[in-house]
């Protein structure tokens, strides 16, 4: 199992970023997927979840209305479109396989998002 995140960077408040997670080593279309983030000195925070076909999505209240999760099963890739970014969105963002990212899951190495003037 391999999950490789990309697309992070430094952006000003109000800006946008699109994260990608390339999956390999398993049948991507068979698994729900998640985005999880961790800010320095804090525990991991679940951000968003998508079902296998992409028809059902869920978001943490802190990002609802600003972030959009999606997937392309033909490309084995998970996405997170992040708009109206705030400084409190700064964190290391991970994609995680499975129904529950904190139980029996695989995580990538993460991609850093920094929102700052």
Measure the end-to-end span. Answer: 37 Å
User: What value does the Rg take, in angstroms?
Assistant: 13 Å
Structural class: mainly beta
Characterize the largest beta sheet: strand count, sense, and whether it forms a barrel.
6 strands, mixed
Label the overall shape. Answer: globular
For the largest beta sheet, what order do the strands appear in spatially? Answer: 2-10-9-4-5-6
Average pLDDT for all residues: 97
Low-confidence stretches: none
Percent of residues in β-strands = over 45%
Q: Helical stretch count?
A: 0
How many strand elements? 10
Can you give the helix content as a percent range? under 10%
Properties at a glance:
mainly beta; six-stranded mixed beta sheet; four-stranded antiparallel beta sheet; 117 residues; 0% helix; single chain
Task: Please sum up the structure shown.
The protein is mainly β and 117 residues long. The protein has no helices and ten strands. The model has no long low-confidence stretch (mean pLDDT 97).
Q: How is this structure best described in words?
A:
This protein has 117 residues and is mainly β. 0% of the residues lie in helices and 47% in strands. The protein contains no helices and ten strands. The termini are far apart. The model has no long low-confidence stretch (mean pLDDT 97).
Write the layout of secondary structure elements.
Blueprint: E1 2-6, E2 9-11, E3 17-24, E4 33-38, E5 45-50, E6 57-59, E7 67-72, E8 77-82, E9 91-97, E10 111-115
Parallel strand pairs: 2-10
Antiparallel strand pairs: 1-3, 3-8, 4-5, 4-9, 5-6, 7-8, 9-10
């Amino acid at each position: 199992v391999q999950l490789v995140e990309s697309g992070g960077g430094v952006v000003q408040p109000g800006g946008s970023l699109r994260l990608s997670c390339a999956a390999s080593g398993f049948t991507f279309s068979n698994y729900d997927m998640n985005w999880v983030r961790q800010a320095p000195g804090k525990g991991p925070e679940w951000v968003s979840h998508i079902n296998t076909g992409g028809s059902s999505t869920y978001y943490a209240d802190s990002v609802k209305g600003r972030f959009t999760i999606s997937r392309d099963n033909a490309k084995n890739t998970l996405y997170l479109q992040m708009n109206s970014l705030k400084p409190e969105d700064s964190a290391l963002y991970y994609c995680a396989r499975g129904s529950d990212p904190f139980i029996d899951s695989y995580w990538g190495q993460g991609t850093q998002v920094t929102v700052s003037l």
